[in-house]
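INFO batch 0412 | record 1 of 1 | parsing
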Amino acid sequence: MPGETREAVGLEPAAEGRGTTRVLNLRRMTARRTDEAYRSSTPLELFFDLCFVAAVAQAASHLHHDLSGGHLGHAVGNYLWVFFAIWWAWANFTWFASAYDNDDDPYRLLTMVQIAGALTLAAGVPRAFESGDYLVITLGYVILRLAMVMQWLRAARADPQGRTTALRYAVGYTLVQAGWVARLAFDQPTYLYVGLAVAVGELLVPIWAERAQVTPFHPEHITERFGLFTMIVLGEAVLAATVAVQTAADSRGGTDVDLLVLAGGGLLLVFSLWWLYFDRTTQRMLRSMPTTIIWGYGHYLVFASTAAIGAGLAVAVDAPIGHAHVTHLQQGLAVGVPLATWIATVWWLRVGPPLRGPAVAASPVAAVLVLAAAWTSAAVPLMAVITAALAAVKTWAVRRTD
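INFO prediction complete | emitting tokens
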């Protein structure tokens, strides 16, 4: 089970070559302890996250421009595909690192290859949005996957107890990657159907692999890693809204009351999202593999909707200055749909502390009110107030039970 302690060599050098000068720092890639104290993100993991900012920024920026142009179906469809690629590549690395990060030179080098793949993926986002061409994104995935499969093969060689699981991951990811490459040979609608089938295959690989032996990830480490990526995506939302306000102010020759209210509402909204997610995050969902799968997969909606909220705020700023060809309702829904999705998903995943009594229903009610606010003329400020009220209610309920 995830909470069990497995024997691990830790970060000690391999026995081979002791007392001799080695060109490479080599360690056995055995499982790390799941009860390891003070397990936090490493500088390499933080660097990995930083490089993924480029991909998140590209996806959010193109979602913003497509929404402003009134291309709703095109925007949402491409965004969901692109963000799936971003999220899944990041998650694959994160779960593996939690269990097998030995910080030796081959591990570092293979991680840097994955970073190169992530940057290639980011470079392919514009072509995916503009012409539906996923060739560069697929190339980035090939680079990512080759390095990831090599990591799993190293783990299979060094960790007898987890060998079957590691080999299943290596084989599974090789097969689904072959599926992504083969998909490029098809035209619509077969192209879409093959993509959906391969995406389902991606999600089934961990479920199949973990049936052999649960990977010994560290619950607190995973919680921190997902929290850090949430902050990165929140930061991208802040940046998108800030740039939009700056552009609007420049086009008007200065700010006005409406723009200040919109900017203030966006800021309050982002503050409230941070408060709701990080108010004493619990690791209880990570104590069994079924709930862990739900928690990890559910964060696709958390990450994607967070970045989409930033794009929606940018659309709301574009509209008053004539840069967005959308109605008032479409402006409201551009923020309201991802915000309601975020609130409902975080509530469903129980990211925050457990609640009792009427406060349990606060999140579903808030999600409905947020969607209703899209029909008003002051959608963003009203949504911000609703979200802030939700944060206040949940905080009061938790403090009351302490």
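INFO post-check: Confidence is low (pLDDT under 50) at residues 1-10, 12-20.
INFO record closed
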